[in-house]
Write a sequence for this structure.
């Protein structure tokens, strides 16, 4: 599947524009992380772009989240098992094992924390520093739904929280316009 095909699929299936932006943010972060683990940025990006494909239809049945996406992708002939497993792992349908799986798992809530931090920053994303994000991370009442525990799993990638935030933040800054931030 090409990036273009995946994006088309995402736009067909996800009506909420903020959710489409979330998928783009996770894609950018995954692409940026891939080379550190000898991964292919195209494949890591696809995992990020496609990870929440069924989000809207499974929002009332979270036990099906990711399972629907994987089934659908398989039906389309998509057979990149590592990507399918990463999609399952981000929704806790599988224990993360590979770097791609851990990365998707930990990146997902971090992009949410960064979006929330950017929205309340006077210069939005462009003015946000790694330090700002780390301070927001420590503020437990800020963007509560962004699980700090899951973000901290970046340790499974051998990365400190600071390094991890740095890579994800700069990847998101690179698509600031698409994110509208
Ligand atoms: Fe997500």
């Amino acid at each position: 599947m090409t990036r273009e095909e995946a994006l088309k699929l995402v736009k067909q299936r996800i009506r909420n524009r903020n959710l489409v932006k979330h998928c783009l943010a996770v894609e950018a972060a995954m692409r940026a992380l891939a080379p550190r683990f000898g991964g292919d940025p195209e494949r890591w990006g696809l995992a990020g772009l496609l990870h929440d494909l069924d989000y809207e239809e499974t929002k009332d049945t979270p036990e099906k989240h990711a399972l629907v996406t994987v089934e659908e992708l398989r039906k389309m002939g998509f057979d990149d098992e590592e990507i399918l497993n990463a999609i399952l792992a981000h929704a806790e349908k599988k224990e993360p094992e590979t770097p791609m799986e851990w990365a998707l798992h930990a990146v997902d809530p971090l992009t949410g924390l960064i979006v929330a931090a950017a929205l309340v920053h006077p210069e939005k994303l462009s003015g946000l520093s790694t330090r700002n994000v780390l301070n927001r991370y420590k503020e437990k009442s800020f963007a509560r739904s962004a699980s700090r525990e899951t973000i901290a799993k970046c340790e499974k990638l051998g990365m400190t929280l600071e390094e991890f935030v740095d890579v994800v933040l700069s990847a998101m800054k690179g698509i600031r316009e698409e994110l509208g931030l």
Q: What stands out?
A: The chain has one domain: 3-179. The radius of gyration is 15 Å. The domain at 3-179 is CATH 1.10.3210 (Hypothetical protein af1432).
